TrEMBL record:
Protein name in the entry: Phosphoenolpyruvate carboxylase
Taxonomic lineage of the native organism: unclassified sequences, metagenomes, ecological metagenomes
Pfam families according to UniProt: PEPcase_2
UniProt organism field: marine sediment metagenome
Gene Ontology MF term list: phosphoenolpyruvate carboxylase activity
Record GO biological process: carbon fixation; tricarboxylic acid cycle
Classification via InterPro entries: PEP_COase_arc-type, Pyrv/PenolPyrv_kinase-like_dom
UniProt keyword annotations, A-Z: Carbon dioxide fixation, Lyase, Magnesium
Amino acid sequence: LGCDEQMWDAEGKEVDGFVVKKLLTKYPDFFTKTRLGKDIFLTIRVPNPEEEKTEAKVLIETLESIPRSFDAAKLYFNDDIAPIFEVILPMTTSEQGLDRIYNYYHKFVVGKQFYPTMDGDILISDWVGEFKPHNINVIPLVEDKQHMLFSHLLLKAYFSDKDFEYQRIFFARSDPALNYGLLSAVIINKIAHQRIHQLAEEISMDLYPIIGVGSAPFRGNLRPDTVDRVIKEYPSVQTFTLQSAFKYDYPPDVVSKAVNQLCETPRSRPHHM
């Protein structure tokens, strides 16, 4: 259908942790021409331990699977293109939540390779191999009014000790409509997008908003026949989510045309609020 990214949702769902290995094994010709992690992308949505205590260790398991997926891709292609290098943190309310994942991955998932399992023994990296990629990007998914409106401050605090080339931020659209009403959800998003754009100009960094829209009007009204309107509504958005109704309720050629329009329409400045 032309989509270039798939969200792999490990938040409360029993998704396959070996998805990269299985994709490369089942569709080797496709992934030789269209590289995972370069041409198309697999982005994992992880549980938030602060909000979902019973699923907290799924986060750890998911982070540990990223180097294993890297090894699977390297075995096939003999290069260092990471098939997975970004994760989405739902219900983000602070920069500490992002930092915990970013630092846990760097210090514990990858960092353990520089230590032996016991004194005088070989390093873990000599035992089981290197752990790559060395770092991952953590994408905050902000879903409530307060943290959407002040997400620019959250990002600014998160950047204080880091040097990123870019950062993505995911804004909810469906849940705010359920919680605050349709009009409020639209206004909250527009103000948030404007503030993110202003932050990008202030710190000279590329910030790429994602918006989680559904096909129902109340949830965002993104359908193949409304692509023009939704793009005009949110002109600064880099990535629009496509839910199942978009994919399955319309003919493939209609969906492909709409996806192509979303991909080819350049971003512009957000509406001034």
